[in-house]
């Protein structure tokens, strides 16, 4: 009985990938309608859509707010969806967390922006850049990571570029994330192998964190990984579909997230000192 009481409750997760083919456009669906349709058939506690699944600022589109809010209410599920956010003349690349009652519980604003993809340094000083296909406006970077709480888990999202590096995942886990979620668009990778290469970082982040990791991508690969990097469910690149699996919250920090890179740095320093010491003693033998 004690073991049952301390075992984290299962959480059913559905990851929706809906921008990989033109078949939906042939049916006259827009992107959001497609995500709604793919989500309708799921029985999940958490539904995740990728980065910019909704084009434009969700906080300024009442119709879209009602649309996703009604979906969350019908499914009685939390949702994490990617969309822009506009406030005080600034635009953010955000992840919105929506409660089962349809209300927006909060939003995470992407902190680590991609140079020349999401902002152009010194844009006003280099007017010749307007000749090139560069985004005509700059996103504003968020100021802090976010934790979103549901009854059975606490999750923290990362957006696209942020999921490539170990440190960002370590930051959110040290803040208290029990489930890691990465949302990404990957629209820039259409027609190449970049989407597959980019998606390969998911298992690494799961292993480093020793937590379940959810990755939602617009064109793939969307997947759910266990704490050992095994894919529990996935949608291949360039296909539309839903990856669904049961996950559980994990509270403990992994050894790597507890210590960080310090053990490796110390060992590297010790090795360097030993090498220099041996070199001074003239013990290195050069063979020809």
Structure overview:
The chain has 288 residues and is an alpha/beta fold. The protein has helices at 2-6, 23-26, 31-40, 62-75, 166-175, 194-199, 201-209, 255-259, 262-280; strands spanning 11-17, 46-48, 54-57, 78-87, 90-98, 104-109, 148-150, 153-159, 179-184, 213-217, 222-225, 231-235, 241-247. The strands form 2 sheets. Strands 1, 2, 3, 4, 5, 6 and 13 form a 7-stranded mixed sheet that branches. A 6-stranded mixed sheet has the order 7-8-9-10-11-12, covered by helices on one side. α3 (31-40) packs parallel to α4 (62-75). Residues 22-27 have low confidence and may be disordered.
Summarize the structure.
The chain is α/β, with parallel strands linked by helices and 288 residues long. The chain has 9 helices and 13 strands.
List the SSEs and their pairings.
Layout: H1 2-6, E1 11-17, H2 23-26, H3 31-40, E2 46-48, E3 54-57, H4 62-75, E4 78-87, E5 90-98, E6 104-109, E7 148-150, E8 153-159, H5 166-175, E9 179-184, H6 194-199, H7 201-209, E10 213-217, E11 222-225, E12 231-235, E13 241-247, H8 255-259, H9 262-280
Parallel strand pairs: 1-2, 2-4, 3-4, 8-9, 9-10
Antiparallel strand pairs: 1-13, 4-5, 5-6, 7-8, 10-11, 11-12
Helix pairs in contact: 3-4
Q: Which consecutive residue ranges, at least 5 long each, have pLDDT under 50? A: 22-27
Query: By helix and strand content, what is the structural category?
Result: alpha/beta
Please outline the major beta sheet.
Answer: 7 strands, mixed
Q: Residue share in helices?
A: 25-40%
Distance between the terminal alpha carbons, to the nearest Å? 70 Å
Q: Work out the strand percent.
A: 25-35%
Number of helices: 9
Q: What's the number of extended β-strand segments?
A: 13
Radius of gyration: 22 Å
Order of helices and strands: HEHHEEHEEEEEHEHHEEEEHH
Mean pLDDT: 88
Mass-distribution shape: globular
């Amino acid at each position: 009985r004690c073991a049952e009481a301390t075992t984290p409750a299962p959480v059913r997760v559905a990851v929706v990938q809906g921008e990989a083919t033109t078949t939906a456009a042939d049916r006259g669906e827009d992107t959001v309608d497609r995500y709604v349709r793919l989500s309708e058939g799921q029985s999940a506690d958490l539904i995740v859509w990728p980065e910019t699944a909704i084009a434009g600022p969700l906080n300024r589109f009442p119709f879209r707010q009602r649309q996703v809010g009604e979906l969350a209410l019908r499914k009685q599920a939390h949702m994490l969806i990617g969309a822009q956010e506009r406030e005080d003349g600034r635009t953010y690349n955000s992840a919105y967390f929506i409660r089962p009652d349809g209300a927006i519980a909060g939003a995470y604003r992407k902190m680590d922006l991609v140079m020349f993809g999401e902002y152009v340094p010194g844009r006003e000083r280099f007017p010749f850049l307007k000749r090139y296909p560069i985004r005509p406006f700059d996103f504003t970077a968020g100021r802090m990571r976010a934790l979103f709480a549901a009854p059975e888990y606490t999750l923290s999202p990362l957006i696209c570029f942020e999921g490539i590096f170990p440190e960002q995942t370590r930051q959110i886990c040290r803040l208290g994330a029990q489930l890691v979620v990465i949302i990404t668009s990957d629209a820039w990778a259409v027609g190449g192998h970049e989407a597959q290469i980019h998606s390969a970082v998911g298992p690494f982040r799961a292993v480093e964190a020793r937590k379940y990791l959810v990755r939602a991508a617009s064109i793939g690969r969307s997947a759910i990984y266990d704490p050992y990097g095994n894919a529990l469910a996935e949608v291949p690149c360039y296909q539309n579909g839903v990856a669904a699996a049961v996950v559980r919250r994990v509270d403990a920090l992994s050894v790597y997230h507890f210590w960080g890179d310090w053990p490796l740095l110390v060992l590297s320093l010790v090795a360097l000192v030993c090498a220099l010491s041996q070199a001074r003693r003239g013990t290195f033998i050069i063979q020809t």
